[in-house]
Amino acid sequence: MKKSNNNIHPIFDRIVSRKEQERLLNQKGTVLWFTGLSGSGKSTIAEALERKLYNQGYFVKVLDGDNIRSGINKNLGFSLADRKENVRRIAEVAKLFLDSGTIVLCSFVSPTIEIRELAKEIIGTNDFKEIFVDTPLTICEKRDVKGLYKKARAGEIKGFTGIDSPFEAPINPALVLKTENITIADCSNEAAKLIEA
After folding, report:
1. Per DSSP, what are the bridge partners of residue 129?
2. Cys-Cys link to 82, which of 4, 69, 77, 133 (CB 3.0-4.6 A)?
3. pTM (2 d.p.)
4. Residues 45-99: tens digit of each pLDDT
């Protein structure tokens, strides 16, 4: 059970509202949550989509796993408990951007259904659009630009998703992108439809 803190007094009701921010930006804030194995193409698709939307005049923010872990979450490891806390913090940050009318592109392995449900609960069901970047493990390992799979296979990294830690595929995502059969440009075009809708 959460402890209540009588010394915290949020001012959300007194600051510029989300509707006002969205009117100023001429867009509706939303969160696209890209999930998939390491090397599946999440970050690459999010980067391409950010550029596409920016060029169309949208205000967009990418929250990416490595970027977040180099700053706000640099004190966290990769145990399931730390991964859950990693996603909790990310979701809270995404919610702050969302409340300012921003389109937020989150790119995180977020390996379990429970962890992604936590993110959806924080962000809000209506604003959370889950995108499963569905790339076979063999292709992710071939891409392995960071050398992480090689280290995991050699036992140098423990608890690596897809090797000795499970990845639970989304049950009912807003979009599935099978990157083995589709270009990055096509992936970003498909994801953009969730915003245009």
Report:
1. 32
2. 77
3. 0.88
4. 999 999 999 999 999 999 987 777 777 777 877 777 888 888 899 999 999 999 9
- State both tokens at 31: 């969160």
Q: Into which CATH architecture does domain 18-136+168-196 fall?
A: 3-Layer(aba) Sandwich (3.40)
- The residue assigned the tokens 């990416």 is 64
- Spatial CB neighbours of 112, under 8 Å, sequence gap ≥ 6: 80, 83, 166, 168
Return all residues near 163 (Cβ < 8 A) that are at least 6 apart: 149, 152, 153
Q: Which of 69, 170, 63 is nearest to 123 (CA)?
A: 63
- The one-letter code for the residue type at 148 is L
Q: Any catalytic annotation for residue 110? A: yes
User: Distance of alpha carbon 152 from its chain centroid, rounded?
Assistant: 23
From the list 38, 43, 110, 188, the catalytic residue is 110
